[in-house]
Design goal:
This protein has two helices and no strands. The protein is mostly loops. The two termini are about 25 Å apart.
Length: about 120
């Protein structure tokens, strides 16, 4: 279950959330099981965040940083991960149907000018 304080910070906006992440680098955010569907989460910093079982369907995570995030069992159907950094993300058991990973960075290497496309099977 999500930490209510962490959830309130995110719902205050991505800018507020990212500032809090910068000020609290040793805190591992817990948003497990949270309903974050349909949200604009562009450029959010979800590094090391526990999003297990979270609902992110149809959310916009364009340019998001998800390095080492746990999205096991999460519902990310039809979510946008365009140009997101998804290195070492745990997607086990996640619903990835229709999720868009166009130009997502999924390895420690620079994408070429055409971007990196990632195809995941659900």
């Amino acid at each position: 279950m999500a930490n209510p304080e962490h959830l309130a910070l995110l719902k205050a906006g991505v800018h507020r959330w990212n500032n809090w992440r910068d000020e609290n680098p040793n805190t591992i955010p817990d948003l497990s099981g949270a309903d974050l569907s349909l949200l604009n989460l562009q450029s959010v910093d979800f590094t090391d965040t526990n999003l297990a079982g979270a609902k992110l369907s149809e959310s916009d995570l364009t340019n998001a940083d998800l390095v080492n995030a746990n999205l096991s069992g999460a519902d990310v159907a039809n979510a946008l991960f365009i140009s997101a950094t998804v290195i070492n993300v745990n997607f086990s058991g996640a619903n990835l149907k229709g999720a868009n990973f166009r130009y997502a960075v999924h390895e420690y290497e620079e994408a070429d000018d055409n971007g990196t496309e990632m195809t995941l099977e659900a």
